[in-house]
Amino acid sequence: MFAYEFNKSALQVKEDDERSPAFIISPTGAKINRVFVVGVLTDVEQVRSSDELWRARIADPTGIFTVYAGKYQPEAAAFLAKAEVPQFVAVLGRARLYTQDGISYVSIWSKEINPTTEMVRNNWVITTAERTLDRVEALKIALSAGLQSNTLRTKLLDSDVSAVLADGITRAVLSYNGSDVIADIVPVIASAIEAVAEPREFTPANVDPQRSSVTDGAATRENERKNQQINEAITAQEDPAVTEALVRNKEHVLLKMNELDAGSGVPYDRLIETLEEQGLDEDDVEEAVQGLMDEGKCYEPRIGILKLI
Fold first, then answer.
1. Element (H or E) spanning 115, and its range?
2. Above 60 in pLDDT, residue 19?
3. Arithmetic mean of pLDDT, 131-145
4. Edge-to-edge strand order for the sheet containing 11-14?
5. Mutual orientation of helices 216-235 and 178-196 as an angle, nearest 10°?
6. Which distant-in-sequence residues (6+ apart) come within 8 Å of 286 by Cβ?
7. Residue 280, Cα to own-chain centre: how many angstroms?
8. pLDDT at 134 over 70
């Protein structure tokens, strides 16, 4: 799940059995207990020294995950205690939701944190985009049906939606505005894909045999369907002239950051001032910097300072 959707999750449910785990229900209806995320570790701080509690921030192309590790997660805590920033990491952990004064905060209590590579991060983004689009399509079915509760759940099951997702969507439509969810998240998915892949060259991986019982022919059609979904999401956001200009601006910003950084980073205002002298508008620089941060190519170690990954 992308950080964008995870951070907008504000509903928690628990089954009747006292021993059952609590689930967070995301805006697209995912039932979240444990999550697997990959991104750039941009910040680590020790929250409490008494019990070795650490907090980290991990960026994917859509936002920031807040990750904790303490005495009950000794391996993850040991990793964060010695971790160099920035670096690509993979995290497996339990999703937590805390509500105060009507505001919900979500975080991940990590079980495992391991260093990884940019290629793994990129593959994770594509897989996460596919699975998010699958939930969006199921949510569209729910909204068009105009049903609730068991009748909606039955409708989704009849439409080949998995039982877990059908249950999650049935709960989600009561707490989130489904139309707004779809309108907001599709551009986010497109942006995430653009951050890691050339849209015209994208070819999805084969369907995981453990997640599908379809024949080879059906698997091929499923790949084609997902390919079409993702390309439609990208195409809906594309403006060739704007895209080409943004690519040039990002390349220009990267070169200038590399030139100006003496080791401790580049002040944001200095970067803007220098590039304005070379013909770029402040808005163009800000857009390019945001794009580079989304792609995991630079980060902000402290406010007002930029540094290349």
1. strand 103-115
2. yes
3. 95
4. 11-14, 22-25, 31-32
5. 90
6. 272
7. 30
8. yes
Please give the DSSP secondary-structure letter assigned to residue 88: E
Cβ–Cβ under 8 Å, residues 90 and 1: no
Two tokens at 112? 């495992």
Which of 4, 21, 23 minimizes the C-alpha distance to 13? 23
Query: How far apart are the C-alpha atoms of 52 and 80, rounded to whole Å?
Result: 10
Mean pLDDT for 197-221 is 48
Distance CA 204, CA 9 (A): 27
Closest of 92, 86, 85 to residue 114, by C-alpha: 92
Structure tokens at 156: 């989704």
Q: Which of 101-105, 147-151, 165-169 has the lowest mean pLDDT?
A: 101-105
The C-alpha atoms of residue 171 and residue 157 are separated, in whole angstroms, by: 14
Element (H, E) at 74: helix 74-82
**Using the 8-state DSSP alphabet, how is residue 210 labeled?**
G
- Count CA atoms within 13 Å of residue 216 on its CB side: 0
| 307 has a pLDDT exceeding 80 | yes
Check the CA dihedral 181-187-192-198 and report its sign.
Answer: positive
Torsion of CA 12, 182, 187, 272, to 10 degrees: -50
Model pTM? 0.72
What structural domains does the chain harbor? 3-117 (2.40.50.140), 123-235 (no CATH), 240-308 (1.10.10.10)
